[in-house]
Write a structure and sequence with these properties.
Number of helices: 3
Number of strands: 73
Mean pLDDT: 90
Helix content: under 10%
Structural class: mainly beta
Strand content: 25-35%
Distance between the termini: 120 Å
Oligomer: single chain
Shape: elongated
């Protein structure tokens, strides 16, 4: 019968009961179980039957007395399965006299129905609390409709909370969604222990919190008959925690095979106080789901303590994208003492992250017997693992020893799976220190393991050991061994000046081995605990002990021949007498062992061979300087150069260096130090520091005059002799525009017929082009295609003439012999008077654009400049003279020849001429 129909039927029956007093239906029913009988009035079975018939809220309380009760414990033993609970109900055994959280008083025993389910709930929205349910195949099953709550129960264990009963398969089976097992505080705790699955979760979005699973009700020891799997979840969106103690299982505390599982705030493998081990048999957590799975978090309440799993792994992460953050793994809950797992974390290369770059994401992985972290992989397990920011072998203070057997061990089974340990970004490096054995051990079947930026120190054996066989001497080649057998760096010199470290050396068995071109060399301040944790290998390039890199200082890159040199600012204090070591990492991410230690000496100031000035970002030795505008600020890059024209990055390392930067005449072959400076002077003092690495932008410069050819000169007077160098490229500083006037400029509008002066066509007049910039000495040209006669002109004339070179004292060019061949007026359009030769030093080199632009395009101005708008009208121009051509006179009638004869006619022509 559909639920709606059933409810209507119940309501009709209730009305009949009200009218006629007939029994048999209940609404908003509260019942009390008063006996241990299997059926009949007052029994649990009858209460469930009546509850299923109720149409409203149903509550089943307990006040059991009489037969079946002994020593205050009342046991109900159904002969067969109890009815399926099909309508929401609260079954509350906390109402039984004498109930406490650790001493529940009502037991539902499956001794006579062991293959049945204790409470089978399909109704949803039901609560079960305060019961002991044991001896069934399944103690509780939450099916079909969800949103149930099970709390304060002993499930699968005896009323004393110390023993589970053999043969039980499931504690709580969940195939519905949105159920809560436990609650928000420890007062909601269930104690769960069965033969196989304590809680089996197959529905979605279920929460399991504040329960004891696999451990006794006191939270002190494993149940006497162990549960195989504490929580086995394969639904989706399951939240496990906070507050669970999942310990003492024979197999795994928590097994997650689902999507989007979250495991937070639990104790896994310890007692409830987190002070002693209560081991799970194989793994504390097995995370093998389709991902993502989050274990821990970035706030203290989400921290899991995953410790005490002495024969297995704390975390076995073989699923996709397992995020492990903020946990204590191998320590007690306070993080002050060891509760060892055999291995802290085992991860299998499926895109997991262990730790992070912030302190809140950091795991403490210390005190574990064999290793803190084990990284492994098999076919298809990509994209590898990222291990960052963790403390491995020390306490939460980052310094106090709490050793693992080894820090990290890696065995990738010949799979090309990238593993990243640390990194050079802030917070990415792990502390891998004070472990009993090696800091990091990489098996010969493993490659692509990048180990950078970590603090590795005071381990009992090598900080990084490729092949787990001690120091592997450099052989000058890659090989089929751990991380392709990459050689470590050999430092030939290391010096310090103030906060700058200078290094030089090579990677390989000798200098100049191109096999190791473009390799990253990470430089570390080495720990020195007496033996430097390495043996002496005669063939490794230096017959000294090998160290461990405690403090990452910086990185340099080898050149094409495998050699390196450079300097960098260091944040940590390094003094003369300290020891430095390093690793090499190739482009594929293979990192070497640590190289031999070298003692730090006094650094040297490296003078440059030369200097150059170039446009911002341009190539240091060959970059160009572009055309500038007079009166407009600009800056250039000033670069210190080595003899091979590469940047001298060590310039000013340790001691700031000041140079003079000035602009000088760029023409001719005059020696740089003899070139005349511009007037007024454009000069500044520029101070290099180590952080500039040999290249620094100048301060803003402004040239008020026009110059056709300038260079930038740099002088370092700190050196003996002084280093003086001019820029490899020269450049022009041009006017922005020309303004054009004329002696014929009497009428600006070109409409007057009486304007003066009146200039005869063909007569000379003057044009003037004013750049408004002192120093301009160019020769403007005329673009006659822009000439326009006045409106209504019968014909435009031809403009002839040329400008002389501009007077640099005024920046003005004139031409006194211009002429125009027609009458009326004319004007020149925009850029009708122009200069395209003044910037010849730049236009030929492509250092300006082939236009009149006064705006930067790709950092460049136009090569040309001229009048920016049309000129005024010039003129008016009049004819030079007129020519009269008379015609023949014709009398009006024959025979008369005198002029005044009536009817006498004549004709002539008048021609305007220039």
């Amino acid at each position: 019968m559909p639920k709606a129909t059933r409810n209507r039927w119940f309501r009709m029956l209730a009305l009949l009961v009200f009218v006629f007093g007939a029994p048999g239906a209940y609404a908003d029913l509260t019942q009390t179980v008063i006996n241990t009988l299997d059926s009949g009035a007052g029994s649990l079975r009858q209460a469930i039957i009546d509850s299923n018939a109720a149409s409203g809220t149903s509550i089943i309380n307990f006040a059991v007395v009489g037969a079946g009760c002994a020593s205050g414990i009342c046991t109900i033993t159904p002969a067969s399965a109890l009815p399926v609970i099909t309508y929401p109900v609260t079954i509350d055994a906390t109402t039984q006299s004498g109930y406490t959280l650790t001493t529940p008083k009502v037991v539902i025993s499956g001794a006579s129905a062991s293959d049945a389910t204790g409470l089978d709930i399909t109704a949803g929205n039901s609560t079960v609390q305060g019961l002991v349910i044991n001896g069934f195949y399944k103690q509780i099953s939450l099916r079909t409709n969800g949103s149930n709550n099970v709390q304060r129960c002993f499930i699968g264990v005896t009323s004393g909370g110390t023993t589970s009963i053999f043969g039980q398969n499931y504690g709580i089976e969940i195939t519905s969604s949105n159920n809560l097992i436990g609650g928000a505080t420890s007062a909601s705790r269930n104690v769960i222990g069965v033969t196989h699955y304590g809680i089996d979760v197959r529905g979605s979005n279920n929460t399991i919190s504040f329960n004891y699973i696999g451990i006794n009700a006191a939270g002190t020891a494993a149940l006497t008959k162990k549960t195989s799997y504490g929580i086995y979840e394969w639904g989706s969106g399951t939240v496990i925690g906070p507050g669970n103690v999942v310990s003492g299982t024979s197999a795994t505390g928590i097994t997650s095979t689902s999507w989007n599982a979250i495991i937070i705030g639990n104790y896994i493998g310890t007692n409830a106080a987190g002070t002693a081990a209560v081991p799970n048999g194989f793994y504390g957590i097995s995370a093998g789901g389709l991902g993502p799975t989050r274990i821990g978090g970035t706030i203290a309440s989400e921290r899991n303590v995953i410790s005490g799993n002495t024969t297995g792994y704390g975390i076995y992460a073989q699923g996709r994208t397992v995020l492990i953050q903020g946990n204590y793994i191998g320590t007690n809950a306070a993080g002050t003492a060891a509760l060892p797992n055999n291995i802290g974390v085992a991860a299998f290369g499926y895109g997991g992250i262990i730790g992070g770059t912030t302190a809140a994401e950091r795991n403490i992985i210390s005190g574990n017997s064999t290793a803190g972290i084990h990284l492994e992989s098999s076919a298809g397990r990509v994209p590898g693992e990222l291990v960052q920011g963790n403390y491995i072998g020390v306490l939460a203070d980052g310094t106090t020893a709490l050793a693992n057997g080894k820090g990290i061990e890696i065995a990738l089974n010949n799979q090309s799976i990238p593993m990243v340990i640390g990194g050079t970004a802030t917070g990415a490096g792990n502390v891998i220190a004070r472990n009993t054995g090696r800091g990091i051990e990489i098996a010969n079947d493993s490659t692509l393991v990048s180990i950078r930026g970590n603090s590795i120190h005071h381990n009992g054996a090598l900080g990084i050991d490729l092949g787990a066989d001690g120091v592997s001497g450099n052989d000058g080649a890659f090989g089929a061994t751990a991380n392709n057998g990459i050689d470590y760096p050999i430092f030939t010199t290391v010096g310090v000046i103030a906060s700058t470290l200078q290094v030089a050396g090579y990677v390989g068995s000798a200098a100049n081995q191109s096999t190791f071109a473009n390799v990253l060399v990470d430089v570390y301040l080495a720990s020195d605990d007496g033996n430097n944790n390495g043996v002496i290998v005669a063939g490794d390039g230096q017959n000294v002990a090998h160290g461990e890199g405690q403090t990452y200082l910086g990185t340099v890159t080898t050149d094409a021949n495998g050699n390196f040199s450079g300097s960098f600012t260091i944040a940590s204090t390094v003094i003369v007498g300290d020891k430095v070591t390093g690793t090499a990492t190739d482009a594929s991410g293979n990192t070497s062992e640590f190289g031999p230690n070298i003692t730090v000496g006094v650094g040297v100031i490296t003078p440059p061979a030369s200097f150059n000035c170039v446009e911002s970002g341009a190539t240091a030795a060959t970059g160009h300087l572009y055309t500038k505008l007079a009166g407009t600020p600009f800056s250039v890059d000033v670069v210190a150069l080595k003899a091979d024209n590469s940047v001298e990055t060590g310039y000013a390392a340790g001691v700031d260096q000041s140079v003079t930067v000035e602009l000088v005449d760029g023409s001719g072959g005059t020696a740089c130090d003899s070139r005349a400076a511009v007037n007024p002077a454009v000069s500044q003092t520029l101070t290099f520091s180590a952080a500039n690495a040999g290249r620094k932008a100048s301060a803003s410069m402004t040239v008020s005059k026009a110059y056709a050819d300038l260079r930038c000169r740099v002088t370092d007077a700190n050196q003996t002799p002084n280093i003086v160098a001019c820029s490899s490229d020269d450049f022009a500083v041009r006017p922005s525009a020309l303004s054009v006037t004329s002696t014929a400029s009497a009428d600006a509008t070109g409409v007057s017929t009486s304007a003066t002066p009146r200039i005869k066509t063909g007569a000379n007049f003057t044009l003037t082009a004013d750049s408004a910039v002192v120093g301009y000495n160019g020769t403007p040209a005329i673009d006659t295609s822009t000439l326009a006669a006045h409106s209504g002109a019968v014909q435009a004339g031809t403009l002839s003439g040329s400008f002389s070179s501009a007077n640099p004292a005024t920046g003005i060019a004139t031409g006194a012999a211009f002429s125009y061949t027609e009458v009326g007026y004319f004007r020149l359009g925009s850029t009708g008077v122009y200069d395209n030769t003044f910037t010849a030093v730049d236009s030929a080199a492509g250092d300006c654009t082939n236009d009149f632009s006064n705006a930067l395009v790709g950092g460049q101005y136009g090569c040309k400049f001229g009048n920016t708008s049309a000129t005024s009208y010039f003129g008016r121009f009049i004819p030079d003279h007129f020519a009269l051509a008379p015609g023949a006179a014709t009398p009006a009638c024959g025979g008369y020849s005198y002029f005044v004869q009536d009817g006498f006619t004549t004709a002539f022509s008048l021609t305007a001429q220039n």
